[in-house]
Design goal:
By secondary structure, the chain is of the alpha+beta class. The chain contains 11 helices and 12 strands. The strands form 2 sheets. Strands 1, 2, 3, 4, 5, 7, 10 and 12 form an 8-stranded antiparallel beta sheet that branches. A 4-stranded antiparallel beta sheet has the order 6-11-8-9, with no helix packed on it. Helix 4 runs antiparallel to helix 5. The protein starts with 5 loop residues before the first helix and ends in a 5-residue tail after the last helix.
């Protein structure tokens, strides 16, 4: 340091020393009442921080933790649909709004009403929304208002999860091929579900079904199951969340139907995509591609078919439900609480 700077440096140190001394003297001059008040305020602040941290919404188990919970509840094999009379998804529509509103009130009392405006509005006017929706989009259970509406979504809507799934295409495909070998020994191997269709055969192999893990199936696809835990927007904690392998044999048509809600987007990763296979959502056709994800809103009227030749084999996709990108984090927490399996 040049010598010319030394006087200024000395002055700076003197000023700092004087400032510190003045601060210490000011503290000493404070009367006991002021110090007591400051101490009380500090204690209140510490208590508030502890209380807020303790009262945060409970950490819902990630998909990786669902396995133990499902096994404890007696879910053993194949597929399981919730039949609990108290379940918000499975309840008859009579009284459903009251049940949902009760769940929302319970959530708000425990945590907060902050960010609950759309959910509150949706539950309050659910009957009107479900009855007045145009026939192209009629979710069967719950409609969240003011979400952007589109039959299909771009890959960028959930870019991270799309990229994770596509990078692991070969892993998922290998585990499917290992599972599918069992079809040569029996018509419906253990763990598979046959769905009703007007023609052909539609099989599904669930890892997560209506928010509940299927442990035995997950053990047979361990790498695919672990992959679900690395997805940022996978719905794993409420009844609208599913993850499965879906197989259409040649000549199969799935009847037109609506999904239960618009809070999710359904992601199909193409595993095997023969010719003449299409998905039609809201009247708009799309084709699957191997190793690529196709995102759509299944609350729109949709159907799928496989009209390819038998020698080309089945159409196979890995299906997983992701959050609609415009559902906020606070809303996701509340919806997980309101639509928790069995609630």
């Amino acid at each position: 340091m040049p010598l010319v700077w030394l006087p200024d440096w000395s002055c700076s140190l003197d000023g700092l020393r004087d400032f510190i001394a003045a601060g210490i003297q000011s503290f000493r001059d404070c009367d006991g009442g002021a110090l007591l008040a400051v101490g009380c305020l500090l204690l209140l602040f510490v208590w508030y921080c502890y209380h807020v941290g303790r009262e945060q919404p409970r950490a819902y188990p990630a998909v990786n933790a669902l396995m133990q919970g499902a096994e404890a509840n007696g879910v053993q094999n194949g597929f399981v649909y919730c039949h609990a009379p108290e379940c918000a998804r499975c309840s008859p529509h009579d009284g459903l709004n009251q049940k949902l509103y009760h769940n929302l009130q319970e959530y708000a009392k425990r945590y907060s009403w902050s960010g609950m405006g759309r959910i509150h509005k949706g539950i309050r006017e659910q009957g009107r929304y479900l009855n007045s929706r145009p026939s192209i989009q009629k979710p069967e259970v719950f409609f969240l208002p003011d979400l952007p509406t589109s039959p299909y979504f771009s890959r960028d809507a959930q870019k991270h999860d799309v990229e994770v799934l596509e990078r692991n295409f070969q892993t998922i495909l290998c585990e499917f091929e290992s599972l599918y070998k069992a079809f040569s020994n029996c018509s419906l191997p253990q763990g598979w579900k046959m769905n009703s269709t007007p023609s052909g055969e539609w099989f599904t192999f669930y890892l997560v079904n209506q928010g509940m893990c299927v442990p035995r199936n997950c053990r047979r696809c361990p790498r695919t199951y672990r992959l679900l835990g690395s997805l940022r927007t996978c719905i794993g904690n409420n009844v609208f969340g599913n993850a499965c392998i879906s197989v259409l044999s040649p000549g199969t048509v799935i009847a037109e139907h609506y999904g239960p809600t618009n809070i999710r987007i359904r992601c199909h990763l193409g595993l095997k995509t023969p010719s003449n296979c299409e998905l039609v959502v809201g009247g708009e056709p799309q084709c699957w591609a191997e190793g690529r994800c196709l995102l759509f809103d299944d609350s729109f009227l949709h159907t799928a078919f496989h009209e390819g030749p038998p020698e080309e084999g089945p159409r196979v996709v890995f299906m997983v439900d992701l959050w609609h990108p415009n559902v906020a984090a606070a809303e996701r927490q509340a919806l997980d609480f309101i639509f928790a399996p069995g609630r």
